[in-house]
Structure formats: C-alpha cells, structure tokens
C-alpha cells in the first residue's frame, strides 16, 4: 500500500512538473504571437506611409492574418487533437517566425524612403525655390521622371508584408485551440480557469512589450544608418514620418522561433489528474485504456468530424455565443486596429507617443483583470450560470464607459485653406479647396504638396510658399521662415516646420480619455474569463478542441477579415488631403476631418457592440433551462440524466444539451 501511494505521489509530481512546464511554454508562445500581432498593429501607420497606400489597403493587410488563420483553423482544431499537439504548436511558432522575417524583407529590397517635400536637404539662402518668389518663370512641379513613376506604381512591395502576415496567421492557428484542449484534457477541471487566466496574462504581457518596441522604433527613422538624419525636415510628429518598422519584425521573428523549441520535447498525452486520484486503477489498466482509446481515435479520425460539426451547429448556446463574439470583435478589432491613428489625429500626438500611451494605460489593467478573474473563478468555484451573468453585467458596464468617449473630443488642426480661411475662420469642409488667397497668388505655389508650416499667428499652412514666406534661416528641422505675407502684414511674421500644436484643453481631454481607458480595459478583462468558460462548458469534452476552433473560425471569417477593410474604407472617406507620389498619384492620407473620423471610429463600433447584447440576453434565458457540470451534485440525478440521454432521438443525440455533455466527469463522479 505504501509503495502504491509513493508511485501515485511520484506520478502526481511528474504530472504537475510536466503540466507546469507546458503551461509556461504555452504562455511564452501566447506572448510571442501577441507580441508580433500588436507590434504589427502599432506599425500600421508607418507601413501606410512607407508604401503610400490608403487605409483600406492597410485594413486588408491586417485582415490577411485572419485569412491565413481561417484556412486551417477548423481542420487543425479537429485533426490536431488526433495527432501530436505539442509538436504541431512548435511548427506553428516556426512558421510565425518565418512570416515575421518576410514582413521585414521589403526594407532590404526597396530603395530609401523619400517623403513628399519641396525643400531640398541642401536648402540655404541661395536655394530658395520652395519660397514665395514673384514673377516665377515656371510653376513648381513634383518630380515626374517616367522611369521612377512606373517603378513607384509597379513596385507593390507591400505584398510581401501581406504574405508574411498571412504566414503568421497560418502559424498561429494551432496554438490556441490545441494548447487549450491539451490543458483541458490533462489538467484538473477546477484549475482550468486559473490556467486560462495565466495564458491570457501572456497574451497581455506580449502586447505590452510589442507596444514598447513599437513606440521606440517609431521614433527611429526608417533609413537609420544610411541617411544623415540632420538633413531631415520632418520630425516624428509629422504625418510623413516613417519609423524603423522593419527592425521590430526581425525581433519578433527571433522570439517566435525560440519559443517553438520546448514543444518538440513534450509527450503526446499526459495522465489525467482525476484518474490518478483513483487508487484502484492500476498502471497496466491505464496503459491498456490509453491504447484502446488511441486506436479508436485513429479509426475515427474522419468519421466523427461531420457529426461534431452538426452537434455544435445544433447547440443553441454555442451558436448564440459565437454570434455575440462576432459582433463584439467587429467593434473591438476596428477600434484597436486604428487607435494609434485616432490618437494622432484627435489629440495631435505622434505615432510613437500614441503607441506608448496605449501600452501604459490600456494593457496593464487588462493583465491584472485576467489574473483576478481567473483567481476568483477558481477560489469561489463559480458555476457556469453565474459566470454568464457576471460576464454580461461587466460587458454592459464597459460598453457604457466606452460611450463616454464622445465627450472627450478636440477640433481639427487649423490649416489655412483646408479647415479654416486665411483669416482663421472655420469654413465648411469637403467643399472646394481654397488654398490660394490674395497674399500668395503672386507666388506660383504648388497647391497639392503637403509640406506644412506653423505661423506665429497659430495658423498652419500647407507649405511655406502658400504662407507667402520670402526668406528662410537655418536648415533641417530648425529651419525658420520669415517675411510671410499671409501670416501678417508686418515684416516680422515667421513660421516653423510642422503643424501647430493643439491647445492645453485637448491635452486635458486626452488625460481623461486615458483614465477612462484604464477602467474600461480592467472591466473588459474581468468579463473575458467568465465569458470564455461559458464557451468551454457549453460543449461536450470531446468537442472542445473543434468547438474552440470553429468559434475562432466564425470570428475570423465574419469579424477579423472584413472589419479592418470596411472600417479602413470608411476612414478613407474622411480624408481632407491625400499625399502625392512621384507621378502625381495619391498616396497615404496626410490629414483627416476629425469630426467625421470620430463619428465613424466611435459610432460604428458602438452600434455593432450594442447589438451584441441581444443574443447575450437569449443565452442567459436558455441557460436557465439546462444543467451544467458543477450545478448538480446528486449521483442519482446524474445517472437518470444519462439514461435519458440513451433514449433520446437521433436528432437529440446530435444536438445534446449541455447537461449531458461532459461524460468523463460524470463517469468519474459515479
């Protein structure tokens, strides 16, 4: 008897060590994949400017990750359970690393970045073609070398980023469904919420690191080391600035490949904790049962795929939860994807500052909320029904906090001829641009070039020429323009490079916005774990892997892929001024109408997320009629339920309600 107890204790020690190591490795994989994904989102603005593409194309690049994930998610979730799950996860991490490396490759294949400007790096007092000069013999024109023009249009180097992001989606496919199903199969049931909470923490620590990397590299010029940064006439706050986005992808590639190594050394299966508690089951019997089960799984590798799919589609709680998730993710994905752009346009922050603020104010509360939520679920052994009510109440509270963003708004940048008149009076937008005035008609200026300067009167102008400036002093970003007739009639009026900063009131509103983000992020994370447990407990144990995969399939097909594209296309419609490529074709947007931008950015997600509470209410109603594991404690009742299950019709067998789902747990209790 003592020897048996020692063997059991040894097995339990091995179990805990292996499971803890797997949990740590899977957490690192979560960290690596979320690091890559969030870094990608933080660099979207840089990629948009680097390749001169509209926001809708950027949204398509973002959605390419979901396309790659969508190609394999259901089959990997199902067939992966039959195969060696840890090895498949390791291969996925390697593929993600290769995809990140491919995303960085355009930097090495294309030439240096040339931003739109009329000022030459060698500009001095003798070279002043960008200033206001009367009786100019020829109007300034952008470079239109036919060879460069064709090269600019046909390069399409952003396709490398798209393909690499697709590979990253393919590689990430097995990590979540197979990792969670591995833990659910071989971990103690009561520990699952805590383990999932730890995994979710890894998904938050990764984004924190990714946002910090994004903030750092956004301040570094894209061609660092190959150009003299002292000659630049733009700063990180300029909408033409492009940071060193490619360096971070190389870092992500290395991290993903390193995290793949431990998974190649894990066994295919681990002993189930509940079975170890039964001292009457011998080691020989366990091995025999495991072999018989493996044979049955191999024989039924394709036979039960369609029945599982049919069973899930007939599960009302599962389908309603999937619908709720699709609507919620439509709002969250579009909001988070373009959050740096929103902070940049709404509050006048650079991309680097915006990414840093997101990382500091939004993600730590989410990390804390995941841990607290998982601990509470384990400590108080909250049932599935209570978890559903908790998730609904917290989500609704966070939704109302989100609506408060409408109170924290700023006005457009004051740009003469674009958002205001040359006298500083706002005029209706989306009318005909009136960038010429009596003060600059004599200057023969370009009317489409975006090279903004800020006058000492608080107004910005699209170029020094349009501001009527006749003289320049200094070089690079320290250049000062003088004798600007549009700024003031006196001869001492001047302007500096860049747009004028927004007032202190806008900075105060940004602080309120960030404080609100702390509370909303924390409440959102508290609701995530209870909601996810509703998903896991609403399906049978043998369907959990494919259930998680099919749920992810719905989210990617109906939210992850289309949301960034249609959201980006709507944002493009609010653009006030497009950049100009070498051959005169429109490039990336330089300035948006912030009022219309705000209505789309806040209004559309609010409407979509608001509609998601309707199916959530039906879930709460349906859950009253079902019994879940943990709600019933009487063995007689459970046995009666099992007998009823045997007598159900064929359709009912396929669409079995959640109270008959976890056969393994019922057998253990009996």
Please describe what this structure looks like.
The chain is mostly helical. The protein folds into four domains: 1-110 and 155-280, Growth Hormone, Chain: A (Up-down Bundle), CATH 1.20.1250; 121-143 and 412-501 and 581-591, no CATH class; 316-409 and 504-538 and 593-625, Growth Hormone, Chain: A (Up-down Bundle), CATH 1.20.1250; 635-669, no CATH class. It is 60% helix and 5% strand. The protein has helices spanning 2-42, 44-51, 55-82, 85-104, 106-109, 146-154, 158-172, 175-186, 192-219, 245-259, 273-276, 283-299, 305-313, 316-337, 339-347, 351-361, 363-379, 384-403, 504-537, 544-560, 562-572, 594-611, 613-623, 635-647, 650-654, 663-669, and strands spanning 453-455, 460-461, 469-473, 480-484, 494-497, 575-580, 586-592. The protein has a five-stranded antiparallel β-sheet with strand order 2-1-5-4-3, with no helix packed on it. Strands 6-7 form a two-stranded antiparallel ribbon. Strand 3 (469-473) and strand 4 form a beta hairpin. Helix 1 (2-42) runs parallel beside helix 9 and helix 8 (175-186) packs antiparallel against helix 20 (544-560).
């Amino acid at each position: 008897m003592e020897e048996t107890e020692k063997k059991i204790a040894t097995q339990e020690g091995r179990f805990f060590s292996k499971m803890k190591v797997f949990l740590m490795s899977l957490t690192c994989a979560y960290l690596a994949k979320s690091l890559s994904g969030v870094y990608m989102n933080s660099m979207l603005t840089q990629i948009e400017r680097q390749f001169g593409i509209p926001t809708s194309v950027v949204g398509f690049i973002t959605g390419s990750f979901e396309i790659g994930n969508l190609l394999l998610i259901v089959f990997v979730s199902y067939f992966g359970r039959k195969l060696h799950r840890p090895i498949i996860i390791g291969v996925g991490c390697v593929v993600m690393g290769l995809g990140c490396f491919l995303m960085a490759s355009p930097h090495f294949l294309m030439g240096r970045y040339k931003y739109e400007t009329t000022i030459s790096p060698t500009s001095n007092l003798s070279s002043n073609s960008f200033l206001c000069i009367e009786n100019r013999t020829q109007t300034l024109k952008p470079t239109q070398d036919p060879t460069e023009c064709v090269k600019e249009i046909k390069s399409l180097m952003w396709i490398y980023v798209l393909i690499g992001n697709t590979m990253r989606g393919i590689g990430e496919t097995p990590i979540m469904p197979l990792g969670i199903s591995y833990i659910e199969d071989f971990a103690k049931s009561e520990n699952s919420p805590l383990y999932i909470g730890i995994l979710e923490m890894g998904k938050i620590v990764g984004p924190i690191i990714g946002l910090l990397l994004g903030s750092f590299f956004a301040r570094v010029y894209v061609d660092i080391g190959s150009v003299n940064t002292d000659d630049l006439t733009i700063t990180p706050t300029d909408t033409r600035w492009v940071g060193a986005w490619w360096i971070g992808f190389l870092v992500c590639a290395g991290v993903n490949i390193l995290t793949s190594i431990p998974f190649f050394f894990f066994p295919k299966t681990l002993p189930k904790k509940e079975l170890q508690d039964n001292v009457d089951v011998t080691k020989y019997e366990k091995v025999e049962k495991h072999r018989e089960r493996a044979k049955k799984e191999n024989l039924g590798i394709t036979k039960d795929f369609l029945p599982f799919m049919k069973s899930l589609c007939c599960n009302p709680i599962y389908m309603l939860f999937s619908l709720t998730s699709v609507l919620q993710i439509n709002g969250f994905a579009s909001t988070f994807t373009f959050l740096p752009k929103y902070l940049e346009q709404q509050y006048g922050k650079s991309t680097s500052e915006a990414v840093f603020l997101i990382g500091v104010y939004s993600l730590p509360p989410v990390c804390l909320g995941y841990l607290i939520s998982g601990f509470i679920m384990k400590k108080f052994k909250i049932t599935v029904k209570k978890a559903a009510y908790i998730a609904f109440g917290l989500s609704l509270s966070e939704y109302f906090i989100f609506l408060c963003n409408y109170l924290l708004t700023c006005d457009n940048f004051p740009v003469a001829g674009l958002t205001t008149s040359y006298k500083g009076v706002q005029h209706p937008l989306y009318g005909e641009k009136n960038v010429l005035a009596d003060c600059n008609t004599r200057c023969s200026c370009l009317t489409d070039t975006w090279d903004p300067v800020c006058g000492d009167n608080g107004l910005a102008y699209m170029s020094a020429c349009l501001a009527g400036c006749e003289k320049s002093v200094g070089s690079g970003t320290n250049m000062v323009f003088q004798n600007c007739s549009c700024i003031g009639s006196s001869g001492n009026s001047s302007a500096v490079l860049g747009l004028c900063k927004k007032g202190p009131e806008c900075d105060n509103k940004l602080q309120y916005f960030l404080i609100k983000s702390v509370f909303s992020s924390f409440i959102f994370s508290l609701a995530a774990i209870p909601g996810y447990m509703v998903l896991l407990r609403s399906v049978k144990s043998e369907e959990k892997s494919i259930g998680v995969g099919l749920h992810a399939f719905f989210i990617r097909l109906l939210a992850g892929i289309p949301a960034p594209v249609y959201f980006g296309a709507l944002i493009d419609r609010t653009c006030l001024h497009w950049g100009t490529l070498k051959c005169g074709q429109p490039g990336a947007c330089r300035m948006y109408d912030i009022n219309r931008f705000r209505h789309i950015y806040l209004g559309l997600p609010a409407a979509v997320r608001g509609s998601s509470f309707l199916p959530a209410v039906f879930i709460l109603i349906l859950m009253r009629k079902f019994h879940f594991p943990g709600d019933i404690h009487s063995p007689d009742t459970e046995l009666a339920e099992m007998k009823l299950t045997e007598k159900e019709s064929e359709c009912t067998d396929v669409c079995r309600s959640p109270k008959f789902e976890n056969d393994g747990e019922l057998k253990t209790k009996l």
